[in-house]
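Q: What changes when 6-O-phosphono-beta-D-fructofuranose is included in the input?
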Amino acid sequence: MTTQSPTWKHLTQLAARAVERPLSDWLEESDRFARFSFSAPGLLMDLSKQRLDAEVFDGLMALARDQELSDRIDGLFAGAMLNPTEQRPALHTLLRAPAGSDPRSKDVHQTLARVAELAHAVRSGTWRGATGKPIDRIIHIGIGGSHLGPELVLQALRQRHGDLDVRFVANVDPGEVREALRGCDPERTLFVAASKTFGTLETLINASAARDWLLERSQGSDAVGRHFVAISSNVGAAEAFGIPSENVLPMWDWVGGRYSLWSAVGLPIALGVGFDAFTRLLEGAHAMDEHFANTDLERNVPVLMALTGVWNCNFLGANNLAILPYDQRLSLLPPFLQQLEMESNGKSVSLDGEPLKLHSAPIVWGGVGTNGQHAFHQLLHQGTRSFAADFILVGNDPGADEQQRWLLANGLAQSQAMMAGNQTGDPHTRVPGGHATTTLLLEQLDPFSLGALLAAYEHKVFCQGIIWNINSFDQFGVELGKSLAQPIFKQLGGQSALNQDASTRGLIERLRKGVRR
Ligand code: F6P
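A: The predicted holo structure follows.
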């Protein structure tokens, strides 16, 4: 995409005009909600509090057409080479395609059958540990895409949890493993090591600590075989760790880590809430895929999410996006979307390797409402920064539950306050307003709607990558820190010379001597 195109220039002019008009004026149009709210499986998206009118809308559609977005969407489903730097397609939609609908998904369904079988065996007590006892605790070890999705989904669906206690260990912090192992019975604990590469330092260190803990408390050699399963595309490395190949569920090259929730990486979901719920999650995501693939751009929810984001980010100056779920069960949505959006679209070169002349992904952050209202919303209402925000509300039956009604009332009130503000004469109490937000309303927080919501964000990220002409599916930026940590690790242990910059050297010396001395 070039900022010199007629479409881009036209949108720039429209933006200059749009910011002059108070946002509350836009909301006075009587048909505004009907015009700017859109339905997709499991959810409704309200864009009426965005700075959109017919002309802006047409301009954004022209932008999508300039980038041949419809063809690119077809390419996503067809398996086009979307990740050229790693020579891979991005076929995460295949992970939720119904059985028999696509000849390419045979392996996927064979693996899902193994997930179902394993989840059933553990949940029903037929899977036995090395001493013949059933499992009552799962410890899932993985990080990034091998962690964030399963924990988010289990947290969101926690009311449906059965007897199995599912815990997650991601950080290499020793306290995290200790905490997860607290109260565990080694005879009744099953570890799930999830790592696409089976080479991620945090996961290997944590899995090794868990294996040591298990072996110190076990007799006999098959403890690892009965108490560890792995999810990985590197079966050899999992076997070298001691996990028998029949306990290794596959992942594939054509699924990026942050898009892998729908694969065997979702095993803890099937273990925690049952395979049927996992299946409904996949069905929700697939329903969103169908909507995305088959709906005109003008009514296509992920496309409109993406274009509105581009409008806010590239034309109206919002450099960050706040994710504000008004439901405690969705408290892990902000970190999940942080990885999805920032690891995918945090890029500064185009697909051809040329420096971008426009901004790519905003900084994504957020937190659950109403808690955020008593923490960071002050800045949103009266600070000097621009921002964009997504409110996520869940439409359980508000009439039936007073607390739920308060939650929704607060969510709606916040987006209204951000839009209209409060124009008092006193500068200290004045709330300027003028902050455009999107509201996503889930029918209810069930596996289907949740699957649809997460798939909608995946497709939004894909569309924005197309508009910005970047590769949304690699993540080379994360590698540098990993390699720099290697010599520092040795230097912290006094095992190699301190050939570092002055700051790093000084800090290492302090850490080695004891910080205060
Ligand atoms: O470091 C980033 C990352 O590569 C993510 O993309 C990925 O989800 C995560 O690490 C974990 O990788 P793996 O599943 O290979 O352990």
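Observations recorded in class: The pocket of 6-O-phosphono-beta-D-fructofuranose is lined by residues 143-146, 195-197, 200, 203, 257-258, 343, 475, 478 (CB under 6 Å).
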